Amino acid sequence: MRVPAPRRHTAPATRRWAPPGPLDLGLTVGPLRRGPGDPSFRVTPDGSIWRATRTPAGPGTLRLGVRGGEVEAEAWGPGADWLLEGLPALLGAEDDPSPFVPRHRLVHEMHRLRPGLRLTRTGLVLESLVPAILEQKVTSDEAYRAWRLLLQRHGEPAPGPQNRLYVMPDARGWAMLPSWEFHRAGVDGKRSATIVRAARVARRLEEAVSMDLPAALHRLQLIPGIGPWTAAETLQRSNGAADAVTVGDVHVPKIVGYALTGERGTDDARMLELLAPYGEQGDGQRHRACRLILLSGRTPPRRAPRFAPKDISTI
Predict the structure, then answer these.
(1) CA-CA distance, 53 to 127, in Å (whole number)?
(2) What is the pTM of this model?
């Protein structure tokens, strides 16, 4: 069993930042949380959001809070300065919602009700790619459990005062992780092999943060096992890609179709048709439109029992 290294508490680096417009902190950084038990993300009773991550400068922990209309940030670890420098982008400063024009009544209403929604941009590809791969073709609970176990067993304690907060392994750590350790976390061979392949070329994948969306999607999908769904889910977070629409999802097309038209059983083709006014021929905002639709809570009635997850770690 891995014994955590002794923790040294040092004074945090700090920064205050005034957002240029309305900001809903939880909605903006919420997509970075992988389930309620995510060891790298925590919301404390005082409303602070804690995020542990691996930056190009090393591990770092970021605490975010809001006071008097300003965001107060504290950061610990070798990656502290990198995290504070990227704070505005993380909180949507590089996200421009001004081209967005609601074309449906539901979208218009949600846009009015959620003025503080911004699209986060972490600038970190592997951090969002690994959990996206874990979420391929399994239930959310299975993927969240795998992410939690892998970080707790193979990550490292995050710098700073929060206990039981973990930083994910670096690229070499993922690449060297034995197949049986993935299996113990309930991850099948196809997904674990994809993670290892991605980790081995992580430096090239991280270059996607400076690419336009088509080039970034292409770069990620050069890796066998990474398709349009995984690439879009990653770039929505790493690049703040407003037009990275999720295709290949079991639920999203059905929700979008039902919310906008009342139709049941919508597939990807029909979803893309409905989202076309927000897309490349419109204002390149299909992901933003989907976020607003999903936040509406308007989902088709469930007619079938939930899919029963299988724990392959017991096999």
Answers:
(1) 8
(2) 0.92
